[in-house]
Amino acid sequence: IDSLGAGASGVFGVELFVTLDGKVLLNEVAPRPHNTGHYTQDACAVSQFENHLRAICGLPLGSTDLIVEAAAMVNVLGATSGTMEDTLRSSNAALSIPRSSVHWYGKMSCSAGRKMGHINLTANSHGELESSLHRLMDIEGIPLSLLEMSSRRTSKSPLVGVIMGSQSDLPTMNAAVDMLKKFEVPYEVDIVSAHRTPDKLVEYARNAQSRGIRVIIAGAGGAAHLPGMVASMTPLPVVGVPVKTSTLSGVDSLYSIVQMPRGIPVATVAIGNAQNAGLLSVRILSTSRPELRQKMMEYQEELTTMVNGMSFKLLELGSDEFLDQMEHKNKSVNV
Asked: With pLDDT > 70 as the criterion, what percentage of the chain qualifies?
């Protein structure tokens, strides 16, 4: 700094890293504002670069809050061959990845290992982010084990909350969980009794939105007040699952959930059909997530193929032989 001369002032960008054990490491000091902001350009309310300029000018600092659910940055380094063609491979690939932004530094030539730019990725969850990251990391020669280490430290933020009134409801509600797994939607599962843990119910319903939950699936049996009470205290969509009971076969659960007063909606599925609750949650999320919508369309195609296959087999074998080969011959309708 003394080399600037008397009366001169300079700008130094200081980059620090905080390690898991609380140590602060000095990474670099650059005689300029720090680079244009890394992932913060596309993932935060105000970028790192803008906040640096605000600090220099004595202006109030802006919010550093994330405006997306998940984000990552991949550095683009000069290829080992030293050619621009090889160096641009990851940037060209990123152009076809949803929600990716390529930030090129405008350098006219490259050499092996020279930083040429970076690619920002954003997504609705860490699970969605990983597939895009894998692709770019492979091109850049970054070990995938680094991503696995990061995943172990960072839990995926759940988008769907699956709650039930009792542990006895879990065998039914697990079908919703299976659907969320199939569509790779982050979720959480908990027991929240409307009658035995009312304080927990209130806390869960009121805080779900701020924790990143976007849909709540609530299952209950008998005097099934859980879905309706949650719906009365959250702005989020609530999907109710009437759990089948030993006394009234779940009709009591159905009436308790479906007969909500005006102004407090609960989307109620068939008795015991938690699978549909999971699917409905995916459809709700897909209104703002094209990748989920595509997966749902593929799932619907799978159903069409399956039923067409059954139709072909029935026509080929005839009803008697087809019935003999059926594993489940229950005459009641299985929804």
From this structure: 89
State how far the Cα of 147 lies from the Cα of 140, in Å rounded to an integer. 13
Residue 130: C-alpha distances to residues 109, 122, 162, 283 (Å): 31, 10, 23, 22
Please give the Cα distance from 119 to 96 (Å, whole number).
12
Cβ(229)–Cβ(201) under 8 Å? yes
The 10s digit of each residue's pLDDT in 136-147 is: 888 888 877 766
Q: Which of 55, 188, 73 is nearest to 142 (CA)?
A: 73
Tell me the β-bridge partners of 73.
120
Q: Which amino acid is at 276?
A: N
Q: Rounded distance, CA 267 to CA 257, Å?
A: 9
pTM for this model (two decimals): 0.62
Helices (H), the chain: 40-43, 48-56, 84-87, 89-94, 126-140, 144-153, 170-182, 198-207, 226-231, 251-258, 274-286, 290-317, 319-325
The answer to whether residues 269 and 280 touch, using CB atoms and an 8 Å cutoff, is: yes
76-89 burial: b if 16+ Cβ within 10 Å, else e: bbbbeeeeeeebbe
β-strands 160-164, 187-191: how paired?
A: parallel
Give 3-state DSSP helix, strand, coil % of the chain, rounded to 5.
Answer: 40, 20, 40
Q: Which two tokens stand for residue 20?
A: 């898991």
Letter for the amino acid at 207?
N
**What's the rounded Cα separation, in Å, for the pair 240 and 320?**
39
> Of 59, 16, 51, 8, whose CA–CA distance to 33 is shortest?
51
